[in-house]
């Protein structure tokens, strides 16, 4: 098996485990009753800008050639726990245990179950890169997806 493929699969397993850990431990941050109650602020990640919940704290958790994973360690991390920006790695990063709920030319929505909790992976196609939004509030992820502005895909 190709070393790059093994590395990508390993990263996908790690990302799924991180999401599961936060769900299992309940340490995933403050969860809002309604995503409409969550004010968004524009956050600049150099490669892209995106509206994130006020009080969230996204930091790079993992990066590899063609992919960066940002984890929310602040407020609303249950609602919106992570962002992955990648080039051509989405299928590997979604994983086999996710179910495809919606599929179009501009977006895909997947879900996974962790201890009776549904985690969504909202894939927004932005030209030659995909931005994967991860969390348990699908309405918030859809709202946030409308704020994505890729600035420097070449640096990925």
Q: Overview of this structure, please?
A:
With 156 residues, the chain is α+β, with helices and mostly antiparallel strands. It is 23% helix and 39% strand. The strands form two sheets. It has a seven-stranded antiparallel β-sheet with strand order 3-4-5-9-8-7-6. A three-stranded antiparallel β-sheet has the order 1-2-10, with no helix packed on it. Strand 8 (117-126) and strand 9 (129-135) form a beta hairpin. The longest helix has 23 residues, at 3-25.
Quick synopsis:
The chain is an alpha+beta fold and 156 residues long.
Q: Average pLDDT value?
A: 82
- Count of beta strands: 10
Major β-sheet strand ordering: 3-4-5-9-8-7-6
Number of helices: 3
Q: Describe the sheet with the most strands.
A: 7 strands, antiparallel
Backbone structural class = alpha+beta
What is the rounded Rg? 14 Å
The helix/strand series, from N terminus to C terminus, equals HEEEEEHEEEEHE
Helix content bin:
10-25%
The portion of residues forming beta strands comes to: 35-45%
- The residue ranges in which pLDDT falls below 50 over 5 or more consecutive positions are 24-33
Shape: globular
* Intertermini distance: 24 Å
């Amino acid at each position: 098996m190709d070393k790059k493929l093994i590395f990508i699969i390993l990263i996908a397993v790690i990302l799924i485990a991180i999401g599961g850990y936060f769900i299992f431990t309940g340490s995933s941050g403050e969860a809002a009753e309604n995503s409409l109650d969550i004010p968004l602020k524009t956050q600049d990640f150099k490669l892209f800008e995106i509206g994130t919940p006020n009080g969230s704290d996204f930091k790079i958790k993992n990066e590899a050639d063609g992919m960066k994973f940002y984890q929310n360690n602040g407020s609303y991390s249950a609602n919106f726990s992570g962002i992955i920006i990648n080039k051509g790695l989405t299928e590997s990063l979604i994983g086999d245990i996710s179910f495809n709920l919606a599929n179009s030319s501009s977006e895909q929505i997947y879900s996974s179950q962790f201890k009776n909790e549904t985690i969504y992976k909202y894939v927004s196609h932005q030209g030659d890169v995909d931005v994967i939004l991860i969390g348990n509030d699908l309405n918030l992820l859809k709202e946030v997806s409308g704020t994505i502005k890729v600035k420097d895909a070449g640096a990925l």
